[in-house]
Amino acid sequence: MTPRLRQPSVLPGFGLTLGFTIGYLSLIVLVPLAMAFLRALDLSWDQFWQAVTAPRVVASYRLTFGAAFLAAAFNTAFGLIVAWVLVRYRFPGQRLVDALVDLPFALPTAVAGITLATLYSSNGWIGQYLKPLGLKVAFTPLGVIVALVFISLPFVVRTVQPVLEDLEAEVEEAAASLGAGRWQIFRRIIFPAVRPALLTGFTLAFARAIGEYGSVIFIAGNLPMVSEITPLLIVGKLEQYDYGGAAAVSVVLLIISFILLLLINLLQRWSRMRISGETAS
Amino acid sequence: MSIEIQKLHKRFGAFVALDHIDLSIPPGQLVALLGPSGCGKTTLLRIIAGLEIADRGRVLFDGEDATRRHVRERGVGFVFQHYALFQHMTVFENIAFGLRVRPRAVRPPEASIRAKVNALLDLVQMGWLANRYPSQLSGGQRQRIALARALAVEPQVLLLDEPFGALDTKVRKELRRWLRRLHDELHITSVFVTHDQEEALEVADQIVVMNRGRIEQIGSPQEVYDAPATPFVYQFLGNINLFHSRVHAGWARVGGLRVRVPEYGDTEHAPAMAYVRPHDIDLLREPEDDDTTLAATISRVSQLGSLVRLELIQSPDGEIAEVEMTRERYAADPLQTGDLVFVKPRQVRVFLHDNPSVAPPMHWSGDGDGI
Fold first, then answer.
1. What is the pLDDT of residue B359?
2. What ranges make up the beta strands (E) of A82-165?
3. Rounded to a whole number, what is the distance in Å from the CA of B70 to chain A's nearest CA?
């Protein structure tokens, strides 16, 4: 039996909305991405390969994906705590704290980058205390991670918060009445329930961190091979009128991002399947 | 295990949820806490479980003070109205949970956990669903799993909070019979909360009727139904007709009707309410002498399955009354709308107006599902 595109349904407007969705996505997402691919095609295979495997470029991939991963992982842990506090407890100034979480969304990233660089430089407010400990944050890969943590914080908090709110207190009470301790309740009941949302938050934070440019360039120091991120490298190539090279590196960045996001999505689906017991369809 | 509640008091802000509750539940009994919503029955149950802390008073298990004991250590099984199953675990893992979270030293080996869970699955007749997830089960099935999960830790006390409240009528009836059979097998001291009088009457050994944070009556189903201690209990258990009345020197007068009330021998000219169950009324075509009947007109006849319900309007003051009779009795003399009849109550209870728990006068209470 051939699968039918259109299922009989009482919901109206399937054709119209699907057409709109595809048209819209094409215009906003696919066309610009296709442009990058087309540009990259200007290069011969050898040129392309050289552009994307130059040591300096490879080092920048490592930093971009590594720092983005660490920042997203860091935020997954600490974002969960922030969400937990905001959902479970009532305290004075709670609304304010709640609003504060969204601030990294609104702040121009360049402002964030300059502020962070000032704070963490070796004579900055925070940096001066880290220096005796041998920790150098500004103008190192560590600085990149700090900037990425800052800009991707809201994603985890905002995705986990509603799920925690929906988690019935009764379920925890049931677990307690069955003899489970606090840690066991967290590990066996709460964590599995928020795991899909945590993964979503992680994915969003990770994706955002990969593409981040504005805040990072101010704090990273941008040393080739050490603290230079791929987006900066692309901008650098553009400034040197190396459009083909820039497009090639962009394409590789895109493909790696796409594969990683796809993998996380699959993981998420598997995680959700375990909750609802649905079969994959 | 016996449960003893002593002078329990609990308030939420300005709202008094429990007002000096004393209650003693003998071991092995199935007790219903019955009352309208907001009467404190769930709060009482949660305090027994240790999920809520009382402001004052004590809870004793087998004579031992358990007031400060954490829910973890109370050894109670708790079943929630909305099941509270662990959505991300299979049915099997849900039931095994209480055994798996035990400290390593007292945790049974995997093989005996499996054996135990399988035995419980058989007990609740759901062995074939062991590998399903809660979201794939019907409400009735979920509640049975919740019960099996609570039983897995071998609780000394089983507490059920409106266990059948979220289920449809047919499943509810089935499950409560099943719960009764299960209790007869296991003999765990059990307390269940319900607002459904029929459920309480059918399942419980003892019924505790509660209203506004107080206990109105404790007794067997028959006692609370046949001899309600207060007007509230009368109204809450089953349908009633209410008639305005006056009591004087051992007699109550209801319209033209006179009823002997020896318990009010010393009362003089007191306003009162007379309570009559719809099935405790005979309808006659001719008046009797001796002030034992009231004239009325039939305003409506409805057939309700095995029963026929007649609505009457009393002649002098227009008060409305309800009468229920079996189909057979109705068929013997099929009264029609507009017929003049004479009402003869077989059993009347009279409560004086100054009783603090008298509800505001109304003609007859709801349609049997107890508010």
1. 42
2. none
3. 9
For residue range B207-255, what is the model confidence (pLDDT) as tens digits?
Answer: 999 999 999 999 999 999 888 888 899 888 888 888 888 888 888 888 7
Q: Give residue B118's identity as a one-letter amino acid code.
A: N
Per-block average pLDDT, block size 10, for chain A (281 residues)? 61 85 90 87 88 90 93 94 90 90 88 89 84 82 91 92 89 92 91 89 91 88 85 90 89 89 85 56 36
- The residues pairing with A8 across neighbouring beta strands, listed in sequence order, are none
Spatial separation of the C-alpha atoms in residues B237 and A193, rounded to whole Å = 42
pLDDT tier for residue B365 given thresholds of 50, 70 and 90: very low
Of B318 and B303, more confident: B303
Residue B294 — φ and ψ, nearest 5°? -125, 140
| 3 state SS of A10 | coil
Q: Rounded to an integer, what distance in angstroms lies between the CA atom of residue B6 and that of residue B227?
A: 26
Residue in A closest to B69 by C-alpha: A177
Residue B358 — very low, low, confident or very high, per pLDDT cuts 50/70/90?
very low
Comparing CB atoms, the residue among B76, B85, B90 nearest residue A177 is B76
In three-state form (DSSP H/G/I as H, E/B as E, the rest C), the secondary structure along chain B is CCEEEEEEEEEECCEEEEEEEEEEECCCCEEEEECCCCCCHHHHHHHHHCCCCCCEEEEEECCEECCCCCHHHHCEEEECCCCCCCCCCCHHHHHHHHHHCCCHHHCCCHHHHHHHHHHHHHHCCCHHHCCCCHHHCCHHHHHHHHHHHHHHCCCCEEEEECCCCCCCHHHHHHHHHHHHHHHHHHCCEEEEEECCHHHHHHHCCEEEEEECCEEEEEECHHHHHHCCCCHHHHHHCCCCEEEEEEEECCEEEECCEEEECHHHCCCCCEEEEEEECHHHEEEECCCCCCCCCEEEEEEEEEEECCEEEEEEEECCCCCEEEEEEEHHHHHHCCCCCCCEEEEEECCCEEEECCCCCCCCCCCECCCCCCC
- In sequence order, the 6+-apart residues with CB closer than 8 A to the CB of A103 are none
| Residue type for position B92 | F
pLDDT of residue A276: 55
Q: How far apart (Å, rounded) are the C-alpha atoms in residues B34 and B54?
A: 20
**CB of A29 less than 8 A from some CB of B:** no
- A192 with B88: Cβ contact below 8 A: yes
Terminal-residue alpha carbon distance, chain A: 16
Other CB atoms within a 10 A radius of the CB of residue B76 amount to 29
B166 to chain A, any CB pair closer than 8 A? The answer is no
Bridging pattern class, strands B189-194 and B157-161: parallel
- Per the CB < 8 Å rule, is B87 touching A189? no
Q: What residue of B is the nearest CA neighbor of A190?
A: B86
Q: How far is A202 from chain B (nearest CA, A)?
A: 20
CA of A260, closest CA in chain B: separation in Å?
26
Tell me how far apart the alpha carbons of residues A100 and B87 are, in angstroms, rounded to a whole number: 33
In chain A, the domains with their CATH numbers are: 30-280 (1.10.3720.10)
What span, in angstroms and rounded, lies between the C-alpha atoms of A113 and A148? 10
**Nearest CA distance, B67 vs chain A (angstrom):** 15
Q: Is A88 on the interface with B (CB under 8 A)?
A: no
